[in-house]
Structure formats: structure tokens, C-alpha cells
Specification:
Blueprint lengths: L4 H9 L4 E5 L6 H8 L7 E8 L2 E8 L2 E3 L1 H8 L4 E3 L2 H4 L21 E5 L7 E5 L5 E6 H8 L2 E3 L2 E3 L2
Parallel strand pairs: 3-6, 6-9
Antiparallel strand pairs: 1-8, 2-3, 2-5, 4-10, 7-8
């Protein structure tokens, strides 16, 4: 397996320095942080939500969860809920289910990043599979993904 062509071409075309890593399978943010030997705060996890009738990609530290009420306010949506895997299964055809990188802009999705990620010089995220990650600077991620940045994450208990 390798980085999906669309993602690799996007990073290379934008002259982004990144590190690609293969690791043992990890299916949760905590599991990924463990096999990558990074703090959950440095891991950028993707959480898909449905705001009213539209799909939205959120990106936040692996140590956090989405505050749905706060996100609804930010999105000016009547209802926001976590999306089911079935609902977003077809949106990322070049990625394993649940292992999409945080570049929703490549898939015609709005991207929202939690502001706490800005405190981390580098972030690690899934590279389209459960056995590969990309590490790159947060500044490059923000430049490429052009997320709306706001406070909608909260530490998991």
C-alpha cells in the first residue's frame, strides 16, 4: 500500500516536506498514537459529522472529542451528529474506511480544524490506510487544507 496518488501528488505539487511511515495496523486515535510513539495531542484525527444534511470533515487532536453543540453553533446548523461509516464510505474511494487524511478539500468537503492543533509544530495523520501515516508541519496542513479554524474540541475523559 502507498499514499493515495491524489494525496501524494497534492503534497508534491505544493512542495510540502513530509515523512511517510508504515506501522502495524491501528484503528483508533489512541492506537495510532501508540504505534507511532507520539502524543495523542500531536495526532490529527478526522471525525466526520453531518450538519443538517451536509457532510463536514473535522480535524482535531487524537486526545480530544468533538463538542457537537459548539460545532452546531459554529456551523449555524440546527443539528450536528457524528456520521456513520456507511454515510461516508463512498466519499474517499482511494482510502480505507476510516483512514482518510485531513484534506477534505480534495474531496469537495468543508474542513474545520480545532484551534488546539495550531500549538503543535508538526502533526501526524492517517495516509489513507490503517498502516500508514504522514507527518508534516501544521502550518503546511493549514496552508493546503484551508480549514476553518475554531474551538470545538474538548479533552476526552
Amino acid at each position: 500500500m502507498a499514499i493515495p496518488t491524489q494525496i501524494r501528488d497534492f503534497l508534491d505539487r505544493n512542495k510540502v516536506a513530509y515523512t511517510f511511515c508504515t506501522h502495524s495496523p491501528a484503528y483508533t486515535a489512541q492506537g495510532l498514537a501508540h504505534v507511532q510513539h507520539v502524543s495523542g495531542k500531536d495526532l490529527a484525527k478526522v471525525v466526520m459529522v453531518v450538519a443538517d444534511a451536509r457532510m463536514v470533515m473535522t480535524v482535531l487532536p487524537g486526545s480530544h472529542r468533538v463538542n457537537l453543540d459548539r460545532l452546531a453553533e459554529l456551523l449555524k446548523a440546527k443539528s450536528v451528529r457524528l456520521a456513520t461509516e456507511e454515510e461516508f464510505r463512498g466519499l474517499f474511494p482511494d482510502c480505507e474506511l476510516g483512514a482518510m487524511p485531513p484534506f477534505g478539500n480534495l474531496y469537495n468537503l468543508d474542513v474545520w480544524a480545532d484551534e488546539t492543533l495550531q500549538a503543535h509544530p508538526a502533526i501526524v495523520f492517517n495516509a489513507g490506510s490503517h498502516i500508514e501515516t504522514i507527518q508534516m508541519s501544521y502550518a503546511d496542513f493549514e496552508r493546503l487544507a484551508r480549514p476553518r479554524v475554531a474551538s470545538f474540541g474538548e479533552l476526552r475523559h
